[in-house]
């Protein structure tokens, strides 16, 4: 079975200037990896004719599949379409079907079309028109000398739609792809190196056709198991067998699998148990409430939240005692425990969670430097709290606090709600 090689070309000055982060190439790489296509090159090129044509020529020499994003807008600095026409030596002609689709797109949104928008329905005559159902720039598919090209808009949701609906389903018809099965174990509350130590002997004993990858991210570590072979069912069973072997060692850190988010996993736990939660966020400023409410149906278990930044409102709203604040300060175990109890009672919730800390970049002290955060979770008969020593970056501290608070809630639900 021959390896299928792909190259991703991202076009746009804004990418080179750092005005936009190229998340498209990252996403495309992940999707291609899932189906057994190897990305051998990622190229970022500005809006310059000679550079774009050189990128096309270089990619054609080394890749079987070339995926291009960006440069398909209606303005003069969008060069991808005319340069593809030049590179493939074919004229640009009106595609009535494309013009009709663009016209319908504007009509649905009650917007007026311009002559430039109509020109987006004019495409190189040697390409296959691929409808863009969520935007105005069509996809363009080219084939030459055994190499396949797809040009897509740089707008992420438009690109993803074209990839999922057209490119990915087409690949098995063009190439003999390996059978691959991925399963991701998602953990929180443990660092990558500690996790690796816990499962070192299991990892070393994995079969040759199953590979393990550590994928750390903000407050999380993902373990991705990938099985290779010729029979999908057999590979899936082999991967699942290894997961069952490792889970007993790391179960207390595992909150889900594959695309499941921590806040989604917590919502599932609360719904299944019929329990509710309320939040008191000081240093996290409502960020944890935001995470919880991104989950559809969160109104079933989220009672309410407060952001009592000033100590006066920690007292008046949550019932934190003045003596606690005077003796221990707002950033203390005693304060977050009283906050979690108070918000639980305030909203008549089963669980109350709280945060208070020095997010930075200033406000720290020798005793409580920037990055010092206390979190707590209270139930009917318990309060659990934890101290975090985080970073000097304010936004990073808020995000890390969010993960830590949600993970503490998860632990408390699983520990006490039995």
Automatic annotation (TrEMBL):
In its UniProt entry, the species of origin is given as Algoriphagus marincola
InterPro entries xrefs: CinA, CinA-like_C, CinA_C, CinA_KH, Competence-induced_CinA, MoaB/Mog-like_dom_sf, MoaB/Mog_dom
- Give the protein family: Belongs to the CinA family.
Q: Where does the source fall among the domains of life?
A: Bacteria
Q: CDD domains given for it?
A: cinA
SUPFAM superfamilies attached to this UniProt entry: CinA-like, Molybdenum cofactor biosynthesis proteins
Q: Which residues form the MoaB/Mog domain?
A: 7-173
User: What is the protein's given name?
Assistant: CinA-like protein
């Amino acid at each position: 079975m021959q390896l299928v090689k792909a190259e991703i070309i991202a076009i746009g000055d804004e990418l080179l200037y750092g005005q936009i982060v190229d998340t498209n190439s990252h996403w495309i790489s992940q999707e291609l990896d899932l189906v057994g296509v190897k990305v051998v090159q990622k190229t970022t090129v500005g809006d310059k004719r000679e550079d774009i044509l050189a990128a096309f020529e270089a990619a054609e020499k080394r890749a079987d599949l070339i995926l291009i994003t960006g440069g398909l807008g209606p303005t003069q600095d969008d060069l991808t379409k005319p340069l593809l026409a030049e590179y493939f030596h074919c004229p640009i002609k009106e595609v009535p079907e494309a013009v009709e689709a663009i016209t319908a797109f504007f009509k649905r949104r009650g917007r007026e079309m311009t002559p430039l928008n109509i020109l987006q329905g004019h495409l190189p005559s040697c390409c296959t028109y691929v409808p863009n159902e969520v935007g105005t720039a069509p996809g363009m598919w080219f084939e030459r000398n055994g190499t396949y090209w797809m040009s897509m808009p740089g707008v992420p949701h438009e690109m993803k739609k074209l990839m999922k609906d057209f490119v990915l389903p087409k690949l098995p018809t063009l190439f003999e792809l390996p059978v691959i099965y991925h399963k991701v174990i998602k953990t929180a509350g443990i660092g990558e190196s500690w996790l690796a130590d816990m499962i070192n002997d299991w990892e070393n004993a994995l079969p040759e056709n199953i590979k393990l990858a550590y994928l750390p991210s903000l407050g999380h570590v993902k373990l991705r198991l990938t099985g290779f072979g010729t029979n999908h069912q057999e590979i899936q069973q082999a991967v699942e067998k290894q997961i069952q072997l490792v889970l007993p060692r790391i179960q207390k850190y595992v909150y889900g699998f594959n695309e499941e988010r921590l806040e989604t996993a917590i919502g599932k736990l609360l719904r299944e148990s019929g329990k509710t939660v309320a939040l008191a966020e000081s240093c996290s400023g409502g960020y944890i409430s935001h995470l919880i409410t991104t989950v559809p149906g969160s109104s079933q278990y989220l009672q309410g939240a407060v952001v009592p930044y000033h100590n006066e409102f920690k007292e008046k709203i949550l019932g934190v005692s003045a003596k606690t604040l005077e003796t221990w300060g707002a950033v203390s175990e005693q304060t977050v425990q009283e906050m979690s109890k108070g918000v639980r009672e305030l909203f008549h919730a089963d669980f109350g969670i709280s945060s208070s800390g020095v997010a930075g970049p200033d406000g720290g002290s020798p005793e409580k430097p920037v990055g010092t955060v206390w979190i707590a979770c209270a139930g009917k008969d318990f309060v659990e709290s934890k101290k975090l020593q985080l970073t000097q970056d304010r936004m990073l501290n808020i995000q890390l606090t969010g993960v830590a608070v949600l993970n503490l809630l998860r632990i408390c639900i699983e520990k006490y709600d039995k």
